[in-house]
Structure formats: structure tokens, C-alpha cells
TrEMBL record, chains A, B:
Its main location: secreted. Its cofactor is Zn(2+). This is Adenosine deaminase. GO terms for biological process: adenosine catabolic process; inosine biosynthetic process. Residues 187-471 form the Adenosine deaminase domain. Belongs to the metallo-dependent hydrolases superfamily. Adenosine and AMP deaminases family. ADGF subfamily. It is found in: Secreted. One of its GO terms (cellular component) is extracellular space. It catalyses: adenosine + H2O + H(+) = inosine + NH4(+).
């Protein structure tokens, strides 16, 4: 009793509005944040209650047992545990809208690529790095060892399982001890570069390419993603006899695969291409790239979404090197990678300035944006979509503990964020669900709920390159998928 | 020639104001940022040129050789390389103003503590964890082994160097393989807790305590820091005969040490005490703490700066538990730890709300603040000092690569930041220079220059608890130290 009186006694000395003021602050931050203005139907609220119960369970356990919170470590350390999460299972089943930042050659994972090595006419060079090439005769390109028929090498292997495991390793960055293997961004990007070198000749064999992208679209649809904007360097496809095609042929192969896929799956909204060649080139080559982009835009306007430059941003040329040329090409629609860096105040960091000034419709990554208050306002005002790839940024050595990812700031300011997965095949992640899960549980506020997930899904359509009419249709389509997800939701099945 | 024409041809298609617009963005971000409004004298500009030449050398080398950029790793991995840096040497020589966030029992490093173990009347208990106690007879407190005189144990050791090395290890968190030893915040804080348990009975022996804080002030002055606000749990001091004193005695010992130090070093500005007991207590104990704070404030008003609560923030009680009591005690001046967490949207995270609403003069760490746009505005408006401890946050497992530390955002928005070092003795860092160096090179923009360093030093006085007249004097004193640093600066000596 004395204790109670003491509390009351001290309490009266408090500002009587203390808790009201406190609520106002907490609530206004939630209202400002992404999703904060959305209201949910009563059935959506039921789903949300189920979702949040599981989210709180996961996070509160982790808070009390931080040594059991995997998401503070490298993605490779916890990725295999994700499927156990109920929150993850709900997210997996949820329509997630579109995927807007994905690189074509790293969409599907290593098992798919291993299967390709079972195809006929594949030669292998078992050098320090393993190389492949489809050919109807022994390739005459350099091989530090000698070119052999893959089928024969495999047949000669003592243990095919072990042999295939070794081959599979070439198709993934995943390792058991990532902190040892990838101590800095240099080792990570070296491995990443090697991955692309190895995969390139497997996928660019023309018959495979056409099938591969169809299968990639299938993977997205299976993950409840219904529209895709794919970035491609437009690698030159080749035939068994050594014929090499121009980039326009690759673009046409895209068109063909997309058409076939949409015939087979009429509920799919579609796919578009962002031509995204390497940024580490001189101005002459860049001019050729811009020419190619124009050519594709003119001949396949419905396929062509826009233009970008790719590769490790710190190691490539900054945008400012190309400003005069890019100024002259703004009608191509820019979707530049910018700010995928930890180096504050460098030329790379300033790519964000040029991306904004060059009128980019969206920015790839924008990881460094939170340090740039002026640009941040411009991004918000101009509604430049930010394609955030949390898992990629973790795997590619920008951030380890995802709770430190600047997406949490982007969300708190309701910046025009879309979530994407960059190169999920290279790190054996889901097409999109892993990124949604990690962003929702590991990055966003504990209090972020279904409204955040739904807004992120809607953002992916809002900031897409679809023309206004198609965008409206796509959003209607999303709502129909979403409503059926909500209607059929049964908390007991998670 | 054709190439040039091509460039010119494309160039004319550019917005003629492109580069002017670009400069305006870059410059306005620099102007908005901390230090952006300061102008330098011509001699300061010379110093700045020297400083920035070395900074660019270091950063540009690291940018091109990211595998050689230590600051992306754990502090323990690179700390021994810091003294080689010329930027560091300049910073070391530079007056850095005041230190406002430091915990008394972890100011001086393990060698100092090892020396204490050579004193008479020290008993040791060589259990799983080593315990110490000064006493004039064998202690009767629990010991899982048996209490022995330290001098005898050392004499009996086969190899005194190895024995001392083992003892020294008890006084530091530094290990060769931090990523293995400290995989998560749990292991780090367990080790940190053990550190304090071990050190506590060594330092709280009354004669040592009085000398220790004097020596701590000496260490700050040697690092060009001239004013100190020290946080203390006010541990109960004891004598050889087992007498234990009340907390007020510890406070008096502070007063005595400070007076003696200022007599010996008349150029020192002074020191004040923030009473900061552990936050993991019930309301009754908290009331006692508040009483003690009042008692010290009344009896030694010139010593007492304010009140705080300490300990691992996630594991302790959130401020909201104590709001009624704290509301009634705002005249104590609050300097709360708040937002020293990675858990967005939790009760811990919301400590920031209560710290602001309870009228805290400064906030300790505020690590989570960047995710809170409303609070961020309030902090700026109310000019609540943010005591940022980058090395501490790295060692205590909030962030690994310091380039991801939110200080970069605080700097870009010119929030009321002061740099501090928290517990440098526990991780064998400088009193303050390491934190300044790492913040300047590893966190701030590459373009951040002497104006940032000078502003940070001035901020430490501006946001101190000195009364207005004393503050003015302290700032005048700083300018005099600063001017002599600038006048005597010789780039060739670095």
C-alpha cells in the first residue's frame, strides 16, 4: 500500500499529458512510415493478427536469445532455417506484386545449372577454374588443360555424386564458412565475377537461353510474383557450329520466351527488358550500347523498359564520366544502379546525384541514399523508385547484420521502396520471398505489419515501367490475387 | 578529333545547367552537414590541406584495395595499425575539447590494472573466473578455490611473464579472433560483465580509487581532452579492514581527485559526475538511487552533472517502467542511455521517446535514432546532445563495418553530435583519439575536413553540463589550445 501511494505521489508530479504525448510520437512515426496510411478490411485484420502473432513470437524469442537470432549473421549461415518460419510461409503464399531488379543470368540456382551440364555437346575444361562450352566439335578456344566432352568426363569419374557436387560448387557463392571465404568486398566480387564467367557459356547456348528465361518466369510465378523487369547485358547467344548472334537476337529470344510463357500462364502480367551492359567501358563502347538500346526500343517497344549500367559500382566508371552521352539519351528511360557502396563522399557515392539529375525512373540499390538529405528529398518529390536488395547487399559485403540495412530508414520515411532480389540464383535464395521475409522480420520495425507487406507489393507495380493503362490492369490483377489470398487464408495451416 | 566532336555534339543535348545543378546538390549537402557553415583561417586552411592530403591518401588506397581497409572489420583486428596513420597522428595532437560519455571503471587499460595487482594486501581467488580483494587478512567471502595472497601466488609461478599475461587477459576484452569469441551481442556483454566484476574490487579499494581517477584525468589531458563528464555507478569503496563506505564517499573521492588534479594541472578545465546506476533494478531501488542523486546534488552541486541508468539496454528495464519516478526527478538533469540497440520497434528502441520526453539534456549512444524521423526533428529542435561512441558500438556488437554506423547520417544532418569512447580501457583504445580517427576516416564523408573535427570538439563543450559562464570560459580555453595547435602545426612532422 505504501508503495502504491508512493507511485501515485510521484505520478502526480508528471506532466498529465505525458502518455498522450508519448503515444502521439509513436503513432505519428508509424503513420509517416511506409504502409502507415493504409487501412485493412476485417478479414485482412484477421490475417494480420495471425501474421503478427508469429512475427512477435519470432522476434521476442530472438530479442531474449540474441545468440539464436540468425539474421545478425551472414545470409549463408541462416538461409536453410528460413523455411521453418511461419512468417516466411505466410509471405511465401502471399502475392508479392512484381520484381523489378533482377539480373538474368543469376535467377535460377545451381541445381538447374547442374542439370544443364547433362546435356549433349557440352565440352568442359577442367582448369583452375572450370569452363564450359557447347560445341559440335572440340573447341579451339584457350583451355589451360584440354577440352573434353562433359559426358565422358562424368562417365570416367569414380564417384559421380562427388563429381557433380564439385561441378555444382561452380554455380553458387554459397559456402559453409562465408566469414572466412569472403572477408571483404574484394573476395566476394571476385567470386561473383567467376560465377558469371562460368555460367555465361552454359546459358547463352541459344536453345538453353530461350528455355531458361521461360523457366525463370515460372520460378517467379511459383513464388507469387506476376510481373518482371529483367536486367540483361544481352549476352551474345551462340550455336553448336560456333555462330554468334547479335544482341538484338537475345532481345528477340526474350520476347519469344515471354510470349510463350503468357500463352501457357494467362494469369501472368508480363515481363520487360532493361538493357544493362557493364559500366566498366569507354565512351565509344557506351555509345554502341546506347545505339543497341535505341534499336531494341524501336523494334520492340513493348519489350524495352529502359537502360542501366552494371558491375561492381566502386570498380566501374562513375556515371559522371558518361554524363554528356547519357544526357542525350534520356528518352531511353534510365534505371541506374547507384549508391551500391559503403564509400561515403566518393565518386561512386555521387552516382546518386547523377542518377537523380539524369532523370532515372528508379535507382538500383540506393544503399548510400540515407546519408544524402538533399537527394533523399528529391527522390521523394520525384517519386523515384528505390530497388532495395537486402540479401544481395548482405551477401555482396555491404552489410552483415541486416538490422543495420538503411532500408529501415527508407521505410520509416515512406520512400518509394520496392524490394527485389538482384541475383538470387547465385546465393540460392528464393526468387523474392526470402528478401521479403528478411526485410519484414530483420530490417523493418517489429511493429511493421501486413500493411507494409501489401504496400511493398503495390509499390512494385506503382514504380514499374508499365504504361498507365497496363499498370492499372496489373494493380487490379494484384488485388484479385491478393483478395483470394486473404479469403482463403487459414491461420491453422501455418 | 572525331571523338571530340562526338562528345561536343552529344554534350549540347545536355541541360546546359547540368553541372551547375549537380554542384548545387553536392554543395548544399556539404553545407547542411556538421561543420558545413564554419570558415577556416588561412593558417587553418594550411593545416586542413595537410590533413586532407593524408586522408585522401588513406581512403583512396583503401578504395582501390578494399581488402586492405581494416576499418570494415572488428576494431580488435585493426587497432594496432591505427598509430601508423598520419591522419591519426594529427588528430592525436589536436585539442579535442571534452569527453562527455565515459564510464569510470573502464577508462584506463589493462596494463594499469595489472600494475595494481602488484600492490600489497591483495588476495586472489584463482577460480574459473579470477577474483581479487584487498584485505589485511584472508577474505571470508566465497571463493570456489581458496583465497591466496597475490604476491605469494606470483612468487610461486614458474613463469611470471606468462602468469602476468594470464592475469592481464582478465582486464581486457581484446582477443586475436573477435569474430569467433564474440559471435553475438550476448557473448560480448557476458565478457563485458565479467570484466567489470573482475575490475570492481581492484579499483574500489579506497586508496586506489582516489589515485585511479586522478590518473584517468591525466590520460585524458595527455590525449588533449581538457574537460570530463564521467558516469559512475558510484561503487562502494572499502578499506583493508573490510569497512564499506556509502556512495557519497565515492562522490567525495571524485571531488578530491579533481581538485588535486586541477591544482597540479591548472590548464585543465574540470570534471563533473553523472550518477549512473544500473537500469536492471526495481522501482524501490530506483527511488533510493534518485535519493542518492539528490543528496550529491545538494551537497556537491558543482560536482554533480546529472543522472542516468546503465547496463545492456536490451537486457535492462526500459525507461517507461520508471516514468512516474523519473518525471518527479527531472531537476536532476538527465543524460540517459537510449537507443543503444539494433532492435527496431521494441521497448528498448522506444527508450528514445522517453529520453526526449523526460527532457534529457543529452542522449547516450542514440544509435537507433536515424530510424525515428519525428524524434530526430525533436532532438534537433531541442538541441539534445547525442553522445556517439563508434568504437564501443563496434566492439559491443551493434555494427561491424563502421561505414554502416548511423553517425554518418547524424553528421549529414548536422545533429548535435559529440564523440566519445564509452569504455576505452576495456578495449585498449585511446581515451578519445581512436574514436575521433575512426569517425573521421571510417564513418564521415571522404570530404569531411578539419571543420568537422573542430566542430565536433566545440560541440563537446557546447553540449556539456557546464553552466553558461563556465562554458564560455571553457570555449575560450579551447580556442587558445586550438590556436596554438594551428600555429605550431608543421605538416613535415607527420
Amino acid at each position: 500500500m505504501r508503495y502504491l501511494i508512493l507511485i501515485l505521489f510521484t505520478y502526480v508530479k508528471c506532466d498529465p499529458d505525458y502518455f498522450a504525448k508519448r503515444n502521439r510520437i509513436v503513432e505519428s512515426e508509424l503513420r509517416i512510415a511506409l504502409g502507415g496510411n493504409m487501412s485493412l478490411t476485417s478479414k485482412e485484420n484477421e490475417v494480420n493478427n495471425c501474421l503478427m502473432r508469429h512475427k512477435f513470437d519470432e522476434l521476442d524469442y530472438a530479442f531474449n536469445n540474441p545468440d539464436n537470432f540468425g539474421l545478425s549473421h551472414h545470409f549463408f549461415k541462416y538461409k536453410d532455417n528460413i523455411p521453418k518460419s511461419k512468417v516466411y510461409k505466410i509471405i511465401k503464399d502471399m502475392p508479392k506484386g512484381a520484381i523489378l531488379h533482377i539480373h538474368d543470368m543469376a535467377i535460377i540456382g545451381p541445381d538447374y545449372l547442374l542439370n544443364i551440364t547433362y546435356m549433349d555437346n557440352l565440352y568442359v575444361c577442367l582448369g583452375k577454374q572450370i569452363s564450359f562450352l557447347f560445341s559440335n566439335k572440340v573447341p579451339n578456344t584457350t583451355c589451360e588443360n584440354r577440352w573434353e566432352l562433359m559426358s565422358e568426363v562424368r562417365r570416367a569419374a569414380k564417384n559421380v555424386t562427388a563429381f557433380d557436387a564439385k561441378i555444382r560448387k561452380q554455380f553458387t557463392l554459397v559456402v559453409k564458412n562465408p566469414d572466412i571465404v569472403y572477408p571483404t568486398i574484394k573476395e566476394t566480387w571476385t567470386a561473383f565475377g567467376n560465377f558469371f564467367s562460368t555460367v555465361h557459356p552454359l546459358l547463352t547456348y541459344r536453345p538453353i537461353w530461350e528455355k531458361y528465361f521461360y523457366d525463370a518466369l515460372k520460378a517467379f510465378r511459383d513464388d507469387n510474383v506476376y510481373y518482371v523487369e529483367v536486367r540483361s547485358i544481352l549476352p551474345n547467344l551462340y550455336e553448336l557450329d560456333g555462330t554468334v548472334f547479335e544482341k538484338i537476337v537475345t532481345a528477340k529470344a526474350y520476347k519469344k520466351a515471354i510470349h510463350k510463357f503468357m500463352r501457357d500462364y494467362p494469369d501472368f502480367v508480363g515481363a520487360k527488358l532493361i538493357f544493362a551492359p557493364n559500366r566498366k567501358v569507354n565512351r565509344t563502347i557506351l555509345s554502341e550500347y546506347i545505339q543497341t538500346a535505341r534499336q531494341i526500343k524501336n523494334s520492340m517497344p513493348e519489350l524495352f523498359a529502359g537502360f542501366d549500367l552494371v558491375g561492381q559500382e566502386d570498380a566501374g566508371n562513375p556515371l559522371i564520366e558518361f554524363v554528356p552521352q547519357l544526357c542525350a539519351a534520356t528518352n531511353l528511360n534510365f534505371f541506374f544502379h547507384a549508391g551500391e557502396t559503403n564509400w561515403f563522399g566518393t565518386m561512386t557515392d555521387e552516382n546518386l546525384v547523377d542518377a537523380v539529375l539524369l532523370g532515372a525512373k528508379r535507382i538500383g540499390h540506393a544503399y548510400a541514399l540515407a546519408k544524402h538529405p538533399v537527394l533523399l528529398e528529391m527522390v521523394k518529390e520525384k517519386q523515384i523508385g528505390l530497388e532495395v536488395n537486402v540479401v544481395s547487399n548482405s551477401v555482396l559485403s555491404l552489410v552483415r547484420d541486416v538490422r543495420n540495412h538503411p532500408l529501415n530508414i527508407f521505410l520509416s520515411l515512406n520512400l518509394p521502396v520496392v524490394l527485389s532480389s538482384d541475383d538470387p540464383g547465385a546465393w540460392e535464395a528464393d526468387p523474392l520471398s526470402d528478401d521479403f521475409y528478411i526485410s519484414f522480420v530483420g530490417v523493418a520495425s517489429r511493429l511493421a505489419d501486413l500493411r507494409v507487406l501489401k504496400t511493398l507489393a503495390l509499390n512494385s507495380l506503382k514504380y514499374s515501367a508499365l504504361d498507365p493503362a497496363a499498370k492499372t490492369l496489373a494493380i487490379t490483377h494484384f488485388h484479385s490475387k491478393w483478395n483470394s489470398f486473404i479469403e482463403n487464408f487459414d491461420c491453422r495451416s501455418y
